[in-house]
Design a protein that fits this description.
There is one protein chain. By secondary structure, the protein is of the alpha/beta class. The protein folds into three domains: about 80 residues, Endonuclease III, domain 1; about 120 residues, Nucleotidyltransferase, domain 5, CATH 3.30.420.10; about 50 residues. The protein is about 45% helix and about 10% strand. It contains 13 helices and seven strands. Strands 5-4-3-6-7 form a five-stranded mixed sheet, sandwiched between helices. A two-stranded parallel ribbon has the order 1-2. Helix 6 runs parallel beside helix 8. The radius of gyration is 21 Å and the shape is globular. The relative contact order is 0.13.
């Protein structure tokens, strides 16, 4: 409800204030709305500071705004707006680049899943949640973040994975995790063995093994700080929006995790519904395979650049 109201009211305001078509500057792409100068700050704020965005960088802010809006100086205006954002300036710090991960030879989503824990959160939070479990598809980088009150036992972990992973994405071939007590417990190993899932443990002091989870951990915590900087105790209520932002906005591959997993970018506005539709199951499967192939090429290109 909140999502629809926000985006549709903004779209309506821009459409209602649109000038005569003859006065719109040339170069406006088809399917986008020209934004008059009086509404550009509102659009910039929506594309960067709203719950849909969660204070992303230049590329992701531009991607979100370009879904529906355009004006000639949009790129430079986005650069100035993001650079001047006081929230980003207060919560974002320079990060040390993580070592490159080993090459991924995956060809489609859900062939592997990575799990990681973090407990470095404020204990005085809503519901006293202090732990987040990350579930990340190694291929698409599609992620789920689940807040918990405490580290679960191996049996509780099995129930959580069944609810948040198997129910939505099926059974993975391999699960990589850290060496927490839940993951080395005999119950967890036997649970995965009965389901035909290979269990792999990351190496201590070796960030290459779980580098993508470490990166997501950094991004998530930065976004959480930005979204609840005025009231840190509300971080768990902001977590779904941070997860949505991560999954729906593009990354260094030029694809969003959602698009890499499902073969299309989910429509944000009603006018984009035709971009997600297909003529039938065969056409949908062809589109998915084509997307996965191109996305894999981008993954390999990025890894070559890092190494």
């Amino acid at each position: 409800m909140v999502l629809g109201t926000t985006r549709w009211s903004l779209e309506r305001k821009v459409r209602d204030s649109a000038p005569d078509p003859a006065s719109i500057p040339s170069g406006c792409p088809e399917g986008r709305l020209f934004v008059p100068s009086a509404l550009r700050t509102m659009v910039l704020n929506w594309g960067h500071s709203s719950r849909l965005a969660c204070h992303p960088g230049l590329t992701r802010t531009g991607f979100l705004i370009a879904q529906r809006f355009w004006w000639p100086s949009m790129s430079s205006d986005i650069r100035v707006f993001v650079s001047a954002c006081p929230v980003c300036a207060s919560v974002k710090t320079p990060r040390t680049p993580l070592p490159a991960c080993s090459t991924l030879y995956l060809c489609r989503p859900d062939l592997g899943t990575t799990l990681l824990w973090t407990s470095s959160l404020d204990c005085q939070t809503q519901g006293k949640k202090t732990v987040i479990i990350y579930i990340i598809d190694r291929f698409s980088k599609l992620a789920h973040a689940i807040p918990l009150q405490k580290l679960p036992s191996a049996k509780e972990l099995a129930a959580l994975v069944s609810q948040h992973l198997f129910r939505l994405h099926g059974l993975p071939i391999n699960i990589i995790s850290d060496r927490g007590p839940q993951f080395i417990a005999s119950f967890w190993k036997e649970f995965c063995n009965l389901l035909g899932i290979k269990v792999s443990l990351s190496s201590g002091f070796h960030p290459q093994t779980n580098g993508q989870v470490e990166r997501y951990n950094q991004d998530l915590e930065t976004s959480l700080r930005a979204m609840c900087c005025k009231n840190p105790k509300t971080w768990s209520s902001q977590l779904p929006w941070v997860e949505y932002s991560h999954n729906s906005l593009v990354n260094s591959t030029g694809y969003s995790p959602f698009q890499a997993a499902y073969g299309f970018q989910h429509p944000l506005f009603p006018r984009q519904e035709h971009l997600a539709s297909s003529s039938g199951p065969a056409a949908f499967l062809t589109r998915c395979r084509h997307t996965w192939s191109r996305f894999r090429q981008e993954l390999l290109r990025n890894q070559e650049w890092l190494t």
